[in-house]
Structure formats: structure tokens, C-alpha cells
């Protein structure tokens, strides 16, 4: 897979100036804070309406209310809108968000300057009335009703209505074959202005789908507008709240109607293929036996108005009465592009509903972008991840009438209806004994009724462009590119690190042979998973964004069909691994991989309604299939990076959802089928048994994010109180499971037990605690955490001497970063060397990833699989993710020890050679 060259960043050789890291990793910026930002993937050819990004600031540097200005590298002022998305405990700004719609897309990026007012420029105007909201960017004007079955009443440009009656549309089938279908429409229930300019306006529309008798599929649509822009970005989210046995969603889309008053031959249709566009008109003038002339043909193909037919003449043809001759040219009314798989789309058109379809040359992967209009104006619309999120479809209808329509289907009506029924009957798993036996053979937790999709969600991003003329192919191509990969501004890895955010990580370090080998493995593993997404076709409406959990080397296939081994569902923090890799490398491919995963895991793998609301599902053949519903999957720790880097409001919704989970805790057995469930659900109506790793880590992440985003003192109190309580427990963090009172926000500190789990430290709690201990002085908890970090990998006699017990914990490589943290905190070189020895010695639980540098890393597989693929035999996503996180944190905490270790190894090798 070809990728842009990775940025050359080094932990020990930081860049110059205010972006540079310091020896402590918390570099102070200039007195007047400023920072450079650059395009993630190079200079875009167009913006998707505008660009929004986040910037972190060291503690105490930027005060609340500080204004910001944005400048090109040449000093040109660019209007920018700024707001705070997180604060430090002292009230200073931790993360700021910024939005702009620059006229000049500076290839070198921009400079953001604090303490300076933004330049004035075009303003977006928002007017609210009881009837709805009107947004005027200065180029387009949108009217959004406050209620009813219309999402957007009209889109105007230059005083002309270009599109109207924008609606959400759907179909519900009563059977999986789709024989009986009922049409539904989205019904708007509320409209809210979330931002009102001056540069950016955001309108949130909420509602549900209805046919007049039944209401279901609640939706949230955010519409984004930028001053001076002709584009609207729409983020559509819905919750699947049906009955899986009886409800089969057979279509879901967004549709606009367009007034058509141009001559039929001046009505243009453009539909994106994999690289270019189908270029057609309602009445074609090219390819006819009689030639209207090169100028006329060129005008139609290029989307310009043709001259009056009476003037058409060709030097090689006899004179033709074109006004009457045109009546004999077929008029095409409808077009359809259906992308039913990741590898192929079909195209066809017809003259009318009573006539047959004519096929059009088809292709592989449509970019999901289309235009309908004339030289007088029209609407471009696109769906991001069109082919990746199949089955999708684009429909143009009634283009030969006075009122055409353009519909983008997020679920194609030509595909089989959506079927979210559980994938097996569980005949032998109706008892607890049968369920336990199933775990032992397929690793699947099964409990009747728990493999339910009711409450999972899906988010799509769309782009609309209201134009005053048919765009050139270059302009259409730029729009399709901006829709598929919205241009993103980011800070450099050096600058991100200098802000001191997201705990223990450092820039890539290749200063010693061992460090260099580790860095090479980190790059190889991330690239491998990016390639696997494509080779294994990890695409589709419910699947795109996730990766698989475990590999079957006999079939040369990921275990997509084996119980608890299939979809990863954030198991062992794959999301975190990708995000930390991006932070330290700035790699665009990694960003997009992590972005797609954040979108997927936060929506599909988590319940947003119903009895499991706020909890996620453990890995399974279906994303919702496992009976084990836990906070470890829905944890805010997996969404925070994307939210702060992009200020994405939908992810902000998800971060809010996972804070309020106490009610679900009371009534849900959130443990696996392995072992006895008895005693984990308490009679206490306000209490819950909390695993101090997989449960509590998610709770902490939710509270921390809530506190820094909103200043919520209840959240900060929960952090302080519960961590203090853990410090008071007789066994400290080694207690493992503690009783939590949801009313008081305290743990029962009298429990004297020791329950160690190898999973306690691998679902984000290490990263969250690292951040919290940098924010708060909690000596009792820090002592308890330090004990756990020291002892987990300690020799058995040390464990027994301190606790009276000994254990041989698994996931040893993953836990070396805990030992590294203790070594750094205690300035203990012996602990650091022990951590590296375990990490490098191959004491991983399954496959020693350190071997990747010593043997052929990737083997090619041919005839044993349906399509040629590559594989790294023995690699599982659990091991890869935890290797990545442990390597990143070890290099940051105890990387300096490697120089001494390498010198010692070189000396020993020299003695052996001598």
C-alpha cells in the first residue's frame, strides 16, 4: 500500500522554536501563544464547506477568553472562529477548537496566534423563529423547519431556489426477502442552533422515522455552514431500535427535489465513478447521426448553456430543423448507481417509469458523489465512505419533469433488507452449563436475548454543494475528494507533545539499534492492519471501521465466523494504539484508520438506547452478538483523541452518553459467562460491583473527559473520591473488585480481598491514570498504583513477601509499561532494565512480535484463499495493540535505558567474538 512518507520526527532531536519538545516533555510556549498547523494530507483542492481542528495548550499558557487569529504563512489574515473544548484544573485552556473557511488554501499551513482578535470577514447569519431556522452564509440560504416531515425546506443561491423538500426517507420490510415494504419519512421533532457564527453555524435536527402509524429509527442530523461557502456538511446518526425478528430496514436515504426549468438538453447529470464522472444530459446532443456542431456538443459535455437550436449548424451536415428534430431524440428521466459491494457498482438509466432500464458501463468503487442541475444552478451531493459502507445507491429521478430529485441511499433499496437477527439459534446454550461449555469451545459468551442489535447506532457524513451553474469536471472532482477525505488541519507531533496531553508518549526514537528495531515494528504493524482492511474487505454498513480479533493460520483467514474471535470491538485498546501512533508520527494513513475505527466502535459496538444503554459489546461474529455487555467497549478513552483533534460534535454526544451509566450498572450482569455470576449483582439498589480495571477505567475516562470538557465538579469529585478510596483499601489496587455506591460516588473501603486480572490494565486505565496523576495530588492512590505496577511482574518471592500471595500474571509484555512507569517514578534503573528484558525477551503470551525484525515479516498466500492476501502468521490484534502501546510508553518512560542495554550487549558480543 503506497503511503506518504512519514514525517521525520525524533524524541531526542526536537524541532526548533515553540513547537519543540523539552527534556521534560512539557515545553513552554512563547509568552504570546502561537502555533503552526498544517494539512494532514497535503494541500486540498477544495474544502468540505470549511475546516475545523483542535489545538492543545500546556497548562497555564492560554487563559479563558483568549482570542485567536489565523494567518497564512505569508501573513494574510484568515477569519477564524474559536472556542474551548477542554480546560486544565487551573482553568487555563487545555484544548481549543477553531473553524475557518479560507479563500486561499495555503500549502504550507497556517499560524494560529493567541491574544489577537480574529480578522473580520464574511459572516454566517442565523435567524430563529417559531417556524424554524434560516441560515445565510452570504452565498447560500437554507431554511430549516422546526417540525414536520421536511428536513430542509429550501436551499437558495442568488435568490433562486436550487433545491427544496430535503427529506430523510426509508423503507421497512416485514420479511428478510423484502417482499412487503412500507415507506417511511423522517419526522423532525426539534431544531437547535448549537453555534451561530461568525465563521461557522451548526444546527442540530432531531426526530424519528414514521409512516403515520409507527414511529421508530430516532435520528440526529447536524448541518454545518461556513461564512462565504456554498457547501453544507451533514452528519446523520440514527439508532436502530427495532425488533430484529420482524423489522428489516430495506432503504435509508436523504432526498432533495430540484426545480428544473432549463431546456431538456441543458439539464445535466453527473455521477461519480472510481475516478471520473458519468457525464450525461436529459436529452443528449452527442453521438447523433445529425451533428449539431462541435460548439454545441462541447457546451453540453462541459455543462454550459447551448445556443438556441435555430443556430445549430455543422459544416459537414445539411441544414437541420433542430426545433422539430429534437422531439425524436429520447429523453432520459432516471438514473441509478447501485454500490452493493466494495468491489462493484452498476449503472443504468431509463426514459420513464413505464419503460425498461438501459445499462451503462459500470465499474468498481464509486466515490458516491453526484450532481443534478443546469447552467442555471443545481445541487451536488455526496456520501463519505460510499463504497466502504455498502450497500449504497444514488438515484436521479424525474429529471425530464419540472421537479427532479436526487437521493443518496445509505442503505440501498436494491440490496437485500438489513437483517440484524442473531446469527445462530443457541440450541445447546439455554442453560448456564451449556453457555459455559460454548465459551470453552468457541470463546463466545452466549445468553438468550443478549445478542440483540436494539440500541446500536450508525453515523454517516454527507456533503451538499449549492451551485449557480453546472460545475467543471475539475470542480466536481475536487468536491468528491473533499467529501471522501475532508481536509483536516493538525498540529505537528512535536507541538502535540509539547502541550503535555494524553499522558506518557514520546516522539519516535531511532537513536539506538534496539529502539530503531522497535520503531520499525511499530510502523510495520500499523501498515499491516491498514493493508488488511483492504485485502480482507473489512467494509460494509455495519462493519467498516473495525478490524478482526484473531487469525486462523490453517485457513489463512481471520476468524470471522468463530464465536468470540471475530470482530475486535476495541478489545485490548486497538483504538488507543492507532491514536497514539498518529500522535507521535503524524501519519495520515494512521489518522484515517483511527478515525474510521472511532466512528464505528463508538456507534455500532455501543448501545445508545434500550436495556444496555451506555454499555458496549465484547468481540463477536456480530458486533452486538456477545452476551457480555461492558463499559470497557464504550469507554470515553477510545473517543477522546478524535474529539479533541477535530471538535466533532457527534463524538461529543457519545462522550456525554457514557457518563450516565449508573442505572444500567444496577440491573445488568456485565460479566462474562466464564466462572460464577452469583454475587456480582447486588441487592443494594444503588450499588454495583465494579472491576477496578475494565469497569473502573471506563468510569474514570468518562469522568475525566466530562470534567475537562465542562468543568463539572461532580465528575472531578467522583475521580478524587474513588481514587482516594482505592488508596484506603487494605489491598489497594490489588483488591481487584470493589463495591461502588452510585449515590455517594464512593467505594466500600472495608473489602479485604485480592483479585488479580490480566485485563485490568489493558483497557485504557493506564493511559487515564497517567493523565490524572499529572493533574491531581493523590498520594494514597499513587502509592497503591505504584505497588500494583511494581508487583505485577515482580519475582514471586517479592510478591509473596509484600502481599502474602504470588501470581504469574499473563499479558506480561503489555504490563511492562506499568513496570516502566514505576521505574520512572522511583528513578529505579533495575526496574527499567527488568521491564525491557521482559519486553524484548519474547515473554509475550502468544507470539513474540520482537521476531518481526528477525524473520520474514509478511508471507504471501495464494491458492489457499479466495483472493490473494498477505499475513503475519501468529499475530493477533490483542498482541499487536498491546505491543504497540507498551512499546510507545516504554520508549517514552525508560527509553534512555536502551542505550546502556545496547552498549552492554555490544560489549558482551565483542567478548564472545574475541
Describe the structure.
This protein has 914 residues and is α+β, with helices and mostly antiparallel strands. Among the domains are: 32-114, no CATH class; 125-259, no CATH class; 502-913, Glycosyltransferase, CATH 1.50.10. Helix content is 27%, strand content 25%. It has 21 helices and 37 strands. A hairpin with a 4-residue loop joins strand 15 (215-226) and strand 16. Residues 1-11 have a biased composition (Basic and acidic residues). It comes from Streptomyces bingchenggensis (strain BCW-1). Residues 34-112 form the PcRGLX/YetA-like N-terminal RIFT barrel domain. This is Tat pathway signal sequence domain protein.
CATH class category name of the domain at 502-913: Mainly Alpha
CATH level-3 fold name of the domain at 502-913: Glycosyltransferase
Report strand %.
25-35%
Q: Which value, in Å, is the CA radius of gyration?
A: 29 Å
Strand segment tally: 37
CATH-level-2 architecture of the domain at 502-913: Alpha/alpha barrel
Q: What class do helices, strands and sheet pairing give? A: alpha+beta
Main beta-sheet annotation: 20 strands, antiparallel
Taking all residues together, what is the mean pLDDT? 92
In whole angstroms, the N-to-C terminal distance is: 44 Å
Q: Count of helical segments?
A: 21
Shape by Cα distribution: globular
Poorly predicted runs are 1-29, 676-682
Helix proportion range: 25-40%
